[in-house]
Amino acid sequence: MTDPFRTETGHKSWGRVVEGEHQVARPRRTGAVRDLLHQAGDRGLTALAYGLGRSYGDSNLNPGGALIETRGLDRFIALDVEARVLRAEAGVSFDDILRAIVPHGLFLPTVPGTRYVTLGGAIANDVHGKNHHSAGSFGRHVRSIRLERSDRGIQDVTRETDPELFAATIGGLGLTGIILEAEIDLVPIASAFIDQRTEALTGVDHFFDIAETRAQEHEHTVAWIDCTASGDRLGQGVLSCGDWADEGALTPHPAKAGPALPVDLPGFALNPLTLKTFNLAYRKRQLMKPARARIHYSGFFHPLDSVRDWNRLYGARGFYQYQSVIGFETAREATRAMLTRIAASGLGSFLAVLKTFGEYAPEGVLSFPKQGATLALDFANTGEHTLSLMADLDRIVAEAGGRLYPAKDGRMSAGMFKAGYPDWTRVEAMRDPLLSSQFWRRVTDD
């Protein structure tokens, strides 16, 4: 029998900091996954599913073990336009799904900042979007999941049939079984356009003063923050709100991806001066646009997808993404403290995002969203300077009772993880004994 696994060294985190050698297999049929798990087990390897590689840290990497790439498992099984239900294999991307359903007046219930994620990856990370306050996270809209487990074979899981395994799988980082396919609810849209409202934010207090009101007024809300600003301008930025337009063409985004960033930017291109200049120019450009405009969903939800390989902006050493969520009772002061520390470090981010999560309870055991405010930033990897900054941010988040997003993380401590997700042992109890990841070993091994 031909060995389906090949030794490869090219798999990196999206932040390009974490990498490792893997044994990689690329099945084209879901029926092949069972044999791949058995073969990995026979070789003494742990295994993990791998989609489009958009996790920023090490939650989708398994150095020294096996990766089962799911992108070849990309078939649509059934689309019921009237019932607004889709069933598809786990390797189908949001890019594929949206191009198929938008012409029918349908959309995904919530989308992250990129459409280059797979259905299985969206479930495994319980992704969220700009509309958490109105729709919750993606897992809330999942009807059923088909898993292939090394110890039990195929499992068809719903909230009703196996609530514990279902809750462990939503946001469970792909550890409860290889997701083969899923059935999800879709939402109706009247057009492919968003009516966008843009307004200036003068600072942190201004954001928190109006965030709840804007969330009640609009389906989608998100703020860009100038994280290089300090003093009276700390937290200045731009708040964007949006609602689906009630008329317009049902035209999906273009099939062709945008131009690629051809080379890594040199390390010296990222310094306090260039970051401050970019942030000031970006804010000015956003505020020069009309306060109200009708734009295509691709520009509202996925602006970074217009540039392929944008992660090369941070140079060959890569970058870390840091995303926290903190309850409203402490979020204002904690956000001010984080932005103050970031501005003082000189390690600001090109695109710092601040938004709110609604009252929906976490859908899965390890689901990241909870009611409060979430701040997401990218930090160029400068070594100890960057790690020291994030350690300081950890202390602020921990003292405020917050937690970090596993899908964005490549370095949080076991203590930080366990404090943020005290029920993590429920996922460990449901974990397929053959499945593992570098992230899981790092945050659970004592």
Automatic annotation (TrEMBL):
<dbReference type="InterPro" id="IPR010031">
    <property type="entry name" value="FAD_lactone_oxidase-like"/>
</dbReference>
<keyword id="KW-0285">Flavoprotein</keyword>
<protein>
    <submittedName>
        <fullName>FAD-binding oxidoreductase</fullName>
    </submittedName>
</protein>
<dbReference type="InterPro" id="IPR006094">
    <property type="entry name" value="Oxid_FAD_bind_N"/>
</dbReference>
<dbReference type="Pfam" id="PF01565">
    <property type="entry name" value="FAD_binding_4"/>
</dbReference>
<feature type="domain" description="FAD-binding PCMH-type">
    <location>
        <begin position="17"/>
        <end position="189"/>
    </location>
</feature>
<keyword id="KW-0274">FAD</keyword>
<dbReference type="GO" id="GO:0016899">
    <property type="term" value="F:oxidoreductase activity, acting on the CH-OH group of donors, oxygen as acceptor"/>
</dbReference>
<dbReference type="InterPro" id="IPR036318">
    <property type="entry name" value="FAD-bd_PCMH-like_sf"/>
</dbReference>
<dbReference type="InterPro" id="IPR016169">
    <property type="entry name" value="FAD-bd_PCMH_sub2"/>
</dbReference>
<dbReference type="InterPro" id="IPR016166">
    <property type="entry name" value="FAD-bd_PCMH"/>
</dbReference>
<dbReference type="GO" id="GO:0071949">
    <property type="term" value="F:FAD binding"/>
</dbReference>
